Each structure stands twice: as C-alpha cells, then as structure tokens.
Amino acid sequence: MSLYLDSNATTRVHPRVIEAMMPYLTESWHNPSSGYAAARVVREAIETARGQVAALIGAKPSEIVFTGCGTESNNMAIKSLAREIGRTRGKVVVSGIEHSAVLRPVEAMGAVGFEVEKCGVGGEGRLDLDAFRPALDPSRPGFASVMWANNETGVVQPMAEVCEVARAAGWFVHTDAIQAVGKVPVRVDEVPVDFLSISGHKFHAPKGVGALFIREGSPFEPMVRGGGQEGGRRSGTENVPYLVGLGEAAAIMREEMETGGLSRVAALRDRLERGLGGRLDRVWFNGSREHRTPNVAHVSFDGCTAADLLPALDAAGVQCSAGSACMTGKGRPSHVQKAMGFSDERAFSSLRLSLSILSTEAEVDEAVEVIAAVVGRLRGAA
C-alpha cells in the first residue's frame, strides 16, 4: 500500500468536494454569464463558493477573486503592486525563503529597475524582523511580500508584526498564504494584509483553482482583461465545477478548525516525529517547534542523502519529497534551508513529510517502520 506523506505538494480531493462538484459537470453546465434561469443557478453557485472561501479567512465575499492557481494569484498581486509603486522609486522587500512563484516575478521586477531586497531568517526559519524593519523605507513607495507559512518547513511567519512594520512605513503587504490557509488560523480581519494568495489543491480541492484576497480599497490592476468576470478583476469564463469544489473544501477546512480536526493532524505529526526519533539516531527535526503548521515534519537524516532516500522510499511504498515539488530534480540545496544556515550536507539529507486531515495513525506508524528500515539500510551501505 502507498503511504502518502506529501500533502504539501498536493492533497487528495476530498470525497465531499467531488460530490459537490458533480452537478456542475452534469446538469448545471451552463455559462454563468448567460441570461436565462439555468445560468442564474450556476452564477449563484459561484457566489456561494465565494462566500465559503471568504468565511474561511475572515474576508468579505467581494474581496475574493477566483484564479486558476496560487502561482497566478501571486503574480496578479505582485504585478499589480509593481504598477502601483512604479519602477522609478519603488522598492520591494521579500523574505529569503519565498516560493519561486514570488521570487521569480520579483526578480523580473529587479531586472527592469525596481530595487529588490531579500531579508534573512533565523535558524528556526522565522523572518528576522530586526533586518526587515529598516529595509522598509517610508520615504519611498513599496510593498513587502512575506509568506504566511513556508512550503518546505511549515514554519509560520510573524505576519501581524510584518503588517505593523509595513503600515508604519506606508507600504502594502502581500502574503503567499498557500501553505497556511486551511491549516492554521488565517484571518484577514485580524491581520491587515492587503493581498493574500490561496491555492485549492493544498486543502483538498482540485488542482487548477485558487483565489486572491484583495482588501477593499486596495489598488488593483487586472492582469487578464476581457468580458469583465470577477468584477473586472480577472476576466474569462469561470471554471464553475472547480470553484464549487474550492468553496466546499474551504467549508470543510473551516469545520475542521472549529471541531479540532487540525489538532488531530498535529498529533499525527508528533507521533511521526516521536517514532522516527525513537527508532533512529542522528535525526534532526528542522524549523521552529512553536510556530509551524500542524501537518509538516521537516527531517534531516545524517549519513543519507535525499537523492538516495527518495527512490528507496518510493520503492518501499512511501511517497514524500525533499522540499518544494517545484524544485524536484534541480540538484542543488534548497534556498530555504540555506537561508536557515544549514550546511549543504544537512540540506541534502532533508525530507519534508507532510500530512493532511485524511492521514491516519496506521499510515503514520507503518511509514515510521519503513523510513527507519530504509535509512538504516542506506547508512549500512555507505
């Protein structure tokens, strides 16, 4: 049986999500922009989904714009903000551990004249606020982009403090919350970010659907123009079944947070870490113990490399990753782990083991046995 420990790469689509989507793949397949009654039913389903996503993060439904994925959401926010601050005097500050969906568009801004500064993190993977604070120049227009939770380590960033610093400087704040939404409380009514990116397949919706929160009153320049869907902020005929699926997934994760489901996931993660620590020596658990999502164990196995571990674990039935799925096979140490001060040896020996609300104790216990056996075998062969 396959033991899936890669939920930060993607999650299994929840059965309730599939059930919610099916009517919009069969009976209610109409274009929501059409004028007849059947189309209005479809349009109402979109607005229901918008309300479900908004409720998950404490937003107004009008502040939610549906997108095709988290990468699109990040690019929409960053490119709109680039136009707002202008390249002549504009400055952009990001953390050194951002996903490539933030780093690449920001690097493109640097290539055309914007000043871009990366701020470091401490050994536990949390943003260095002492370096971040002076980087935001109140005499210049600018924005900061800091991820809410890191995709590799699960470490949660100090977003309330980030917003406080940015507000004092008169800057905008964007956060890539793709690995945080549905896993930790993300409330835009409490933490005043201006833009926030969401990706549905990280919390049991299908791949190919996301959302961007745009705070009411924030400037926004559309990246895609056309028929004026999404209030003119993202044109194109809506992918209705997937939007319905995103809304249902948001409702499920809201229920999980309200009923303690994520505490169960955290208990499974802790069980996984205890099991590995009890079976193996020379094992390092990376990142903040206090500030992290409940589903991620980031582990370094001294005497092994991820390049050897991953295929051996795959052959033994454990599916996991060395970090971001987007960086698989790149052959260089993770920029996240290097920013945390890891040696190349430690970075190359690290695995990301990530769970979901569909994970079970039996899967975790069997995974511990398999991982311990594979690590022992590889160490013995070294």
Question: How would you sum up the major sheet?
Answer: 7 strands, mixed
- The CATH topology label of the largest domain is Aspartate Aminotransferase, domain 2
CATH class of the largest domain, named: Alpha Beta
- If helices are DSSP runs of H or I spanning 4 or more residues, what is the number of helices? 12
Whole-number average pLDDT? Answer: 96
Low-confidence parts: none
C-alpha geometry: globular
Computed structural class: alpha/beta
Number of beta strands: 12
Please name the fourth-level CATH homologous superfamily of the largest domain.
Type I PLP-dependent aspartate aminotransferase-like (Major domain)
Summarize the structure.
The chain is globular, with a radius of gyration of 21 Å. It has a seven-stranded mixed beta sheet with strand order 2-8-7-6-5-3-4, with helices on both faces.
